């Protein structure tokens, strides 16, 4: 099989726009915890050839179109590295579609609902993949002057911090451990 025939077969096996990365109403989200925010802002601004669209004393975010990604970094005490991944949608209908996928994934889901996080108002849920990588699914509905705090997230973080204290996990606004959600009335 040649490369071109493999590409044709791959594109013919999926309905238009599904799994091809061409859906403009969704964007990949990556959040990285960093040791030095200023150094990281300079690095990512050069890498992306763009300045952050949100810049705070402990946080920066780029909303890139090529590749279509919401890339955020923060310096809030978490261990440096990828904090979580996510899927950001642009409408309530898209959010419902993504939530339906989470339900079919047969993993515990933490449904935060409306919350404030990362200097934004949003509606979100969390799930962990089989390796424990946290995935956030969310719709941003507005800006916030504060980074954010949520009582459901605080309970999840407290339980997760107790369970992972020996691993040195840092508490942060984003990314509760979804496996702690069972005691909070979520599936």
Order of helices and strands: HEHEEEEHEEEH
Radius of gyration: 18 Å
Average of the residue pLDDT scores: 77
Beta-strand content bin: 25-35%
The fold-level CATH name is: 2,3-Dihydroxybiphenyl 1,2-Dioxygenase, domain 1
From the N-terminal CA to the C-terminal CA, the straight-line distance is: 44 Å
Count of separate DSSP helical elements = 4
In CATH terms, the superfamily is 2,3-Dihydroxybiphenyl 1,2-Dioxygenase, domain 1
Classify the helix fraction into a percent range: 25-40%
Structural class: alpha+beta
What is the CATH C level class, in words?
Alpha Beta
Q: What is the CATH architecture annotation?
A: Roll
The global form is: globular
Q: Can you tell me the residue ranges where pLDDT is under 50 for at least 5 consecutive residues? A: 1-19, 164-172, 177-187
Could you give a short account of the major beta sheet?
A: 8 strands, mixed
Give the total of beta strands. Answer: 8
Question: How many separate domains?
Answer: 1
What order do the strands of the largest sheet run in, or round the barrel if closed? 2-3-4-1-5-8-7-6
